[in-house]
């Protein structure tokens, strides 16, 4: 794996049938990525039945072949973080472990 670690934060929304990524940003630290998600989730208005959530992934830029652009690759050794708004507060959890409201 490469050495330039970057954190990708993104927001998504959807329901049980369809999920969409609505915004994404990249950061030099996990703390900065989490703060961005928290600010954005706090500002989002959600309709009943429509979930809005955030996520932070860690990855690195891999060197491509000579002349090719570098590409970002997800770190397979980092589980990631997901965020949901529960009772008006942002709750963080590992993927697959939903926050309870």
Q: State the end-to-end distance.
A: 38 Å
Major sheet details = 6 strands, antiparallel
Strand content: over 45%
Helix content: 10-25%
Number of helices: 1
- Label the overall shape: elongated
Measured on Cα atoms, how large is the radius of gyration? 15 Å
Q: Could you characterize the architecture of this molecule?
A:
With 101 residues, this protein is mainly beta. The protein is 14% helix and 47% strand. It is built from one helix and six strands. Strands 1, 2, 3, 4, 5 and 6 form a six-stranded antiparallel beta sheet that branches. A hairpin with an 8-residue loop joins strand 3 (51-62) and strand 4. The longest helix has 14 residues, at 30-43. It is elongated. 14% of the residues are buried.
Distinctive features:
47% strand; single chain; 14% helix; 1 helix; 6-stranded antiparallel β-sheet; mainly beta; 101 residues
Put the structure in a nutshell.
With 101 residues, the protein is mainly beta. It is 14% helix and 47% strand. A hairpin with a 2-residue loop joins strand 5 (81-86) and strand 6 (89-93).
Write the layout of secondary structure elements.
Blueprint: E1 4-14, E2 19-27, H1 30-43, E3 51-62, E4 71-74, E5 81-86, E6 89-93
